[in-house]
Amino acid sequence: MHTKTIKELSDLLQAKKISATELSKLFLDRIKASDLNAFLHVDETLTLQQAAAADQRIAAGDATILTGVPIAHKDIFVTRGWRSTAGSKMLENYVSPFDATVVENFNQAGMVTLGKLNCDEFAMGSSNENSYFGAVKNPWDKTAIPGGSSGGSAAAIAARLTPASTATDTGGSIRQPAALCGVTGIKPTYGRVSRFGMIAFASSLDQGGPIAKTAEDCGLLLNAMAGFDERDSTSIERAKEDFTRDLNVPLQGLKIGIPREYFGAGLSADVEQAVRAALAEYEKLGATLVDISLPKTELSIPTYYVIAPAEASSNLSRFDGVRYGFRAKDYTDLSDMYCKTRAQGFGDEVKRRILVGAYVLSHGYYDAYYLQAQKIRRLIAQDFQEAFKKCDVIMGPVAPTVAWDLGDKADDPIANYLADIFTLSTSLAGLPGMSIPCGFGQGEKNAKRPVGLQIIGNYFAEAKLLNVAHQYQQATDWHLRQPAE
Ligand code: GLN
User: Fold this and answer.
1) Which of 460, 311, 321 is nearest to 373 (CA)?
2) How many CB atoms lie within 10 A of CB 73?
3) Most buried of the four, 52, 62, 120, 212, by CB within 10 Å?
4) Which parts of the chain have pLDDT scores under 70?
5) pTM over 0.70
6) For residue 69, how many C-alpha atoms fall within 13 Å in the half-sphere facing its CB?
7) Is 308 within the bounds of a domain?
8) Which residue from 80, 69, 19 is spatially nearest to 46, judged by alpha carbons?
């Protein structure tokens, strides 16, 4: 049962072959037995209440396609009931008085919340090792990182601890962990999914999206997740759409742009081979590969690591020991309380970003760093628009290597930043991107570590991306592979 897709589970629920209560118990048992550290907060009573309500809806004939299907939320989305920590000591005991819009949307659809998923502190990281609550293990190889920052969201899908999870992507945090855990994830166009109740990291980049086993499942989840929200000032006012409407469109004549810059030095040979094999499969499906260039790719790292910290330093100023969560115990006056609270409440990476952010925004450096970065951000977005004159979608690797060993880069922030090279520019441009499993690495160690294929589309092309991914998943079985238990 735990290996089934959302679509399959939905059919079984509607046919009353299994109840939502049985299903959530089954997953709660798997979560209890797991040693991956993917879940941070579980509350069986709350889950079973939601499951009972879902069963009633199904019995009353009032179910949506998602009613009764279990889901788990990245601990960046606030939830009534379950604690919401953002992976930080700062919010260790924080319980939100309201649900994030995304959570509310899934609740309304009748999905059953299994709990909250581990992540890098305030979503800052690429390995999930920045979580105050400890790293998540990669289910394919427990000595490897799961990717980040949505490491819990991806690992939980790979280990079949939940059929659906939510995640957020600021510079790659849906796509990269999905790739390193061998599962499917989509980061929508910026503005598609409400940020209300999504604990803010870098507001002009943060975007929620689903992770699941298949593109079809991601489409079903996105249907419920996306939509205009007046409580988010950057939410896009567009009519609701069915993201699964084009799943079965054949790929004959599809033009796939292959950015030269994504296949240069730094890309490991085994990842390149798996990605090239996937591209060959697409040619068999009727697509043609077109050479394109995204010349500013290299600048995406310095640009992102100026803009994201700048926004983070501003967003995280609210954690001052007065309004939310943690407050230091011994202090002499107000200023001392602020300093000690923030010194003790934030981890190293978060502090690093606050420092960098405050620096690049400060008088005298604003023009030299922040403003420059904003200009380059625009040029990066223009690169994509040039490229899309020649192709329908863009494909390449998600990450330069397969998952690395836990601890390997833990003390080397720059090495972590460099691993984001293929995901950052999509985020800076606000474009939708996805990751689908397309193979494994090579050599004794890497042969069991998954590789992801990245598919990038133009604004609002989610239905197209899901179509392109679904067609590949109809022809291959990488998405069905699962780690040994
Ligand atoms: N790895 C990137 C960072 O550390 C992206 C994180 C994210 O997308 N949340 O900022």
Assistant:
1) 311
2) 30
3) 120
4) none
5) yes
6) 27
7) no
8) 80
Q: Do residue 68 and residue 201 come from a single domain?
A: yes
Helix or strand (DSSP H, E) at 365: none
* Cα–ligand 1 centroid distance for 173 (angstroms): 6
Ligand 1 in reach of 153 Cβ (< 6 A): no
Query: Which DSSP helix (H) or strand (E) runs through 269?
Result: helix 269-284
CA distance 356 to 370: 11
Expressed as residue numbers, the domain containing 200 is 6-225
CATH number at residue 21: 3.90.1300.10
The predicted pLDDT at position 292 comes to 98
225, 244, 271: which is the final residue of a domain? 225
Measured between alpha carbons, how far is residue 310 from residues 87, 342, 356 in Å?
A: 20, 17, 7
Asked whether residue 207 is assigned to any structural domain, the reply reads: yes
Helix (H) or strand (E) holding 167: strand 165-169
Taking the C-alpha atoms of residue 332 and residue 339, their distance in angstroms, rounded to an integer, is 11
Using one digit for the tens of pLDDT, what is the confidence trace for 292-335? Answer: 999 999 999 999 999 999 999 999 999 999 988 999 999 999 99
The total of structural domains in the chain comes to 2
Q: Which two tokens stand for residue 101?
A: 């819009």
Write down the pLDDT at residue 479: 98
Distance 206 CA to ligand 1 centre (A): 9
**How high is the pLDDT of residue 265?**
82
Which of 420, 424, 426 has most ligand 1 atoms within 8 Å of CB, for mutation?
420
Catalytic residue among 131, 165, 173, 313: 173
The active-site residue out of 127, 149, 313, 427 is 149
Do both 174 and 61 map to the same domain? yes
The encoded tokens of residue 7 equal: 């679509």
Give the span between the Cα atoms of 185 and 306, in whole angstroms: 26
- 172: Cβ below 6 Å to ligand 1? yes
Kindly state whether residue 315 falls inside one of the protein's structural domains: no
- Count of C-beta atoms within a 10 Å radius of residue 21: 17
- Per the domain annotation, does 468 fall within a domain? yes
